[in-house]
Amino acid sequence: GGPAGLGLGDDTIVTSFTASGFAATPSVLTCSADTNPANGPNCSRTPLTASQQSTLLAAANSTAVGDATTVDLGGSLGEYLVEWQPQGQGAANELVAVQMTTLNQDMAWVVALVIVVSVIGVILAALAFAYITRISLRPLDRVVATAVRVTGLPLHQGDVTGLDPVRVPEADTDQQTESGQVGAALNTLLD
Question: For 78-106, how does the pLDDT look when each residue is reduced to its tens digit (9 = 90+)?
C-alpha cells in the first residue's frame, strides 16, 4: 500500500528507492477514462529527467518517514507533494508524489463547500432565531393590542364606561412569565 497521507490519482509518481537511487526510472502516471468501462482507465507514464529524479531523491532523503514535503520538478510538472514509507527490513522504500495543482484544486473545492455550508447554517440559524423570537413575543403583542384599545377610549374626558370589555386575555396574564406579569398589571390598572 502507499503512504496513508497522500491520495493517488492523475499526475502521480509512485516508485521505489534506496538512499543511493531509484529501483527503476520514476515516471508520472497520467490516466484518462476510457469511453468503454470494460477497458478500464487509459494510463500513460512519462519518465522523469535525470534532474527531476535528483530533485525527487534529494527531497526523499532529507525528509523523515511519513513527513510530506513539496518539491518543484520544473517544466510542465510543477510542484509535487512528496512522502515516503519504508517497505520492510532491507527492502526499498516507497515514494509517492502528488501534483500540488490537483491538491490545491481539491482544497479550494473543500474550502468553498465549507463556506457554502457555513453560510447556509448561519442563515438557517438566523431564521430559526427570528421564528422563535416572534412566537415568544406573541403574548406581548396581545398585551400591546389591549393597551392600544385603551388609548383609543375618551379617558381624558372622564368617561370610563368603555373599559369593561377591554381586558388582556386570561391566557396572557400568567404570573410566571414577564409578558404575563405585564398583562396582569394592565388588567389590574383597568379594574
Answer: 888 888 887 766 667 888 888 888 778 88
How buried is 121 (Cβ within 10 angstroms: 0-12 exposed, 13-18 middle, 19+ buried)? exposed
Complete DSSP assignment for 122-186: HHHHHHHHHHHHHHHTHHHHHHHHHHHHHHTS-GGGT--GGGTT----GGG--TTSHHHHHHHHH
| Side-chain half-sphere CA neighbours of 85 within 13 A | 11
Angle 150-139-174 from CA coordinates, rounded to 5°: 95
- From the CB of residue 97, how many other CB atoms can be counted at a distance below 10 Å? 29
* Secondary structure letter of residue 48 according to DSSP: P
The answer to pTM > 0.90 is: no
